[in-house]
Amino acid sequence: MSLDKATVVRISRLAHLATTDEEQDRLAGELSGILDWVEQLDEVDTDNVEPMTSVVEMLLKAREDQISDGGIAEDIVRNAPKSDHGFFVVPKVVE
After folding, report:
1. Contacts (Cβ under 8 Å, ≥6 apart) of 4
2. Could you write out the three-class secondary structure of the chain?
3. Which of 15-19, 36-40, 48-52, 68-72 has the lowest mean pLDDT?
4. Residue 35: how many CB atoms within 10 A of its CB?
5. Are 70 and 39 in contact (CB under 8 A)?
6. Tens digits of residue pLDDT in 44-75
7. What is the pLDDT of residue 64?
């Protein structure tokens, strides 16, 4: 897949990047190369491969969920500009 210069200009504008004509030509080549490489990934047979997040098996360190400094909700809410029944009152942002 190859990108034309007009597409690179559009991408640059959407990303709020100022690019020169020379940079647009260079970026068109580099982005086309990246897209070609990504297209090659479609050729890989992954039917019997389990989805993974890392090639190295990793175990997450788990700790017991404990409240260590709880019980001060009233102190925290006391600092709020406005509160109601122990909750912060904030302006509505979604209609």
Report:
1. 28
2. CCCCHHHHHHHHHHCCCCCCHHHHHHHHHHHHHHHHHHHHHCCCCCCCCCCCCCCCCCCCCCCCCCCCCCCCHHHHHHCCCCEECCEECCCCCCC
3. 68-72
4. 13
5. no
6. 999 998 888 888 888 888 888 887 777 788 88
7. 86
**Cα–Cα distance measured from residue 53 to residue 47, given in angstroms and rounded to the nearest whole number:** 17
What does the alpha-carbon distance between residue 31 and residue 1 come to, in Å, rounded to a whole number? 9
C-alpha to C-alpha distance for 27 and 4, rounded to whole angstroms: 10
Q: Residue 62 is encoded by which pair of tokens?
A: 């788990």
Ranking 6-10, 34-38, 68-72 by mean pLDDT, the lowest is: 68-72
Contact 2, 32 (CB under 8 A): yes
